[in-house]
Write a structure and sequence with these properties.
Layout: E1 4-5, E2 12-21, E3 23-25, E4 30-31, E5 41-50, E6 53-62, E7 76-79, E8 82-90, E9 93-101, E10 104-107
Parallel strand pairs: 6-9
Antiparallel strand pairs: 1-8, 2-5, 3-4, 5-6, 7-10, 8-9
Protein name: Regulatory protein
Length: 113
């Protein structure tokens, strides 16, 4: 599966939904974990503002990567953000999208380099 690094250096990222435990299977309530570290995964929602426009994105982050002080509307910095295109078929219907994953989310803006 292709992994695409995402450059957020020219973007503003604001929290629109605080982190929640990611559920792998809604029917059983099974919690999603990282396949390598077995660490519990969390999701949060952000507004991604760049180049005169904005988009809402949902980002998956390992639980240990959730920084202190996250609050609604807080500007944040994402470390190691990548995008993964996905596609699945269920009941004869094809769905597709982009999944976002980061190593960490911290309050504050990225340092401009």
């Amino acid at each position: 599966m292709r992994v695409i690094p995402v450059d957020t250096s020219a973007a503003t990222l604001l929290v629109t939904k605080l982190p929640e435990v990611k559920v792998r299977d809604r029917q059983t309530g099974e919690v999603a974990v990282d396949p390598v570290t077995n660490e519990r995964l969390m999701t949060l929602e952000l507004v991604f503002i760049a180049e005169g426009g904005s988009d809402m994105i949902k980002v998956t982050v390992p639980e240990k990567g959730i920084g202190d002080g996250l609050a609604m509307g807080a500007p944040v910095f994402l470390s190691g953000l990548v995008a993964r295109p996905w596609e699945s078929e269920f009941g004869g219907r094809t769905r597709h999208g982009i999944a976002f994953r980061a190593d960490a989310v911290m309050v504050g803006a990225a340092a401009q380099g």
